[in-house]
Amino acid sequence: MPRPKMPPMKKKLNVNALKRVIKILFSYYPVLLPIAIACIIFSAVTAAIPAIFNQQVIAAIEEWFVSRDWASAKEEILPKIILLASLYVISLIAVTSHTQLMAYITQGFLGKMRKKLFDGMQNLPIRYFDTHKHGDIMSYYTNDIDTLRQLISQSIPALLQSSIIVIAVFSIMLWYSIWMTLVVLCGVIIMMIVSGKIGGGSAKYFIRQQKAIGKTEGFIQEMMNGQKVVKVFCHEEKSIVEFEKINDALYEDSRRAHAYANCLGPIIMNLGNILYVIIATVGGLFLLSGAKNFSISGMAFQISIIIPFLNMTKQFTGNINQVTQQINSVVMGMAGAERVFELMDAQSETDDGYVTLVNAKIDSEGNITETDERTGMWAWKHPHTDGTLTYTKLMGDVRLNDVDFGYTDDKIVLKNIDIYAEPGQQIAFVGATGAGKTTITNLLNRFYDIADGKIRYDGININKIKKSDLRRSLGIVLQETNLFTGTVMENIRYGRLEATDEECIKAAKLAGADDFITRLPDGYETELTNNGANLSQGQRQLIAIARAAVADPPVMILDEATSSIDTRTEAIVQKGMEMLMKGRTVFVIAHRLSTVKNSDVIMVLEQGRIIERGTHDALIEQKGKYYQLYTGAFELE
Fold first, then answer.
1. Which residues of the chain have pLDDT under 50?
2. Cα gap 145→335, rounded to integer Å
3. Residues 6+ positions from 319 with CB-CB distance below 8 Å
4. What does pTM read for this prediction?
5. Pairing, β 426-431 against β 389-393
6. CATH code for the domain defined by 15-344
7. What is the domain partition of the chain in residue ranges?
8. Strand 426-431 and strand 452-457: pairing?
9. d(CA 601, CA 590)
10. Which residues of 512-535 are buried (b: 16+ CB within 10 A; e: fewer)?
11. How many angstroms separate the CA atoms of 9 and 256, rounded?
């Protein structure tokens, strides 16, 4: 199979992402992080110091060869050895401290970042999840966060330590011999040029690899959720072909990234070995020729300088190699950080509402007042610019006036929608798929905001109502049921977290779910996993209806609420549904027209417009589109 065509590569790394990571680290750990950095610096400086001791010890031995005064040499050498050993012990303590501190800081940082990501995700609009693959979003929490772990716990400390060693060793080199240092620099410049060429290619592909991983996980997640559909329609071969195409793109990005990365280390290491040989040769020539040394210290060329210089050259190039080796992890970390910050910086759902929903009661004078107790009566608390408050009883009066809406500016899906739902009325929406039925209910919840027109709730523009309070007043049962890991009781209580067990059981009985729940192995304490996979679709839907019932909202939205329930079960549920809808304003979306016959108003939608409205009997008499749908003269889909 030919390799997929590679998309254009991003030219530059987002260095700001790395700066932002470091800034957040300091904000989270303003004391521990500087301590860890100080330990890293101390251990790095200690690693460079032996070159000085080596030079002094070798110089002392050279003098001993000349003077044969071992006692004097011993007095000079022994304290230096003891001091060096002491520094190594302290360095060991510093290394242990910084590794433990960085482990604590890294895991704490990742925990805080995951929490910040999740908290921010809860505030994202529904539009975000409609336009991003869920598997790709999951990748932010796994692969991209893991690249930050490597960046913080390994790459940044290693880079800092190696950089300090390079600076310290370079300074010592200049102290002993500027000529020899210039030779080392020439070799290092060549190493840096090679590193830049290879590292640049590696960086480009590591960035693409992170995006390809997210795309692959998104595809796998889709296939897992749709396995039944894949098998029913014998789509296995096609799925394999599509996966291979995505997997090949990931393979190509990863192969090229690691091909660059894996060859970088050996090349730099061997260039360092060549430079070592060159320094040994040049140093020997300087020593034999009696060349004049040019140095900050003013020392002449001697064995005590050449031998430590060889070790410093090895240490210098080795740490530069260490820096280049960490480039890959830094690049991956920056790519991961950039993706994490993309999710973190995604535009949160805006909410300019200031009207709130409160528990209310009627005082002795007949006025609506706020109370902390749950009275079964709710009111809208409306603050005014003059500092006064007014309370409006929540009745469930919903009106849409000349509403236009489009998911994109160039594609309007609802046009001139007028709906008047008085308290206690049941409004039904019927029409073909894509007519705009569910879109209307999304607008009532303010999952999306209208392009034009007005939506009023008890006479209040819903843009003035806080979204959380607006949604608390609306119960909704979706066609697609979502159950969460936990017991049946916990899933019902999801509708109102403070509900008692008795209230949850009452809601289940109202929805007709109590009968099958009590026959489960552990009744209401039966554990549900994997979206309630151990229940039938109808049973899951009944729990969802019970969940809406326990919330006890004044307005209900039933989006194909009984679509997954068979005819026999529907008969059992219908009575409970009627009790649930009693006294509430209810919006019903249904393809099964028998469920909307008793609605106060039935609205027929076609291509985003309401083309008919009226009671069942009135619409049948008109013999229009509803008549065709109801009698089967026109297929609903």
1. 1-11, 633-637
2. 10
3. 162, 163, 165, 166, 169
4. 0.71
5. unpaired
6. 1.20.1560.10
7. 15-344, 474-552
8. unpaired
9. 13
10. bbbebbeebeeebebebeeebeeb
11. 13
Contact 109, 24 (CB under 8 A): yes
Bridge-based pairing of strands 356-362 and 378-383 is antiparallel
User: Which residues, 6+ apart, have CB-to-CB distance to 266 below 8 Å?
Assistant: none
Query: For residue range 373-411, what is the model confidence (pLDDT) as tens digits?
Result: 877 788 999 998 888 889 999 998 999 999 999 887 778
* Alpha carbon distance 203, 200 (integer Å): 5
> Can 15-344 and 474-552 be said to share one CATH topology?
no
- Buried b / exposed e along 129-167 (16+ C-beta atoms within 10 A): eeeebebbbebbbebbbebbbbbbbbbbbbbbbbebbbe
Amino acid in the structure at residue 276 = Y
The SS3 of residue 99 is helix
3-state secondary structure 191-208: HHHHHHHHHHHHHHHHHH
User: CATH top-level class for 474-552?
Assistant: alpha beta
Host H or E run for residue 362: strand 356-362
Which pair of tokens denotes residue 485?
């890991």
Phi-psi region of 400 (alpha: psi -120 to 50; beta: other; left: phi over 0): beta
Backbone φ and ψ of 592, nearest 5°? -85, 100
The phi, psi pair for 475, rounded to 5°, reads -90, 145
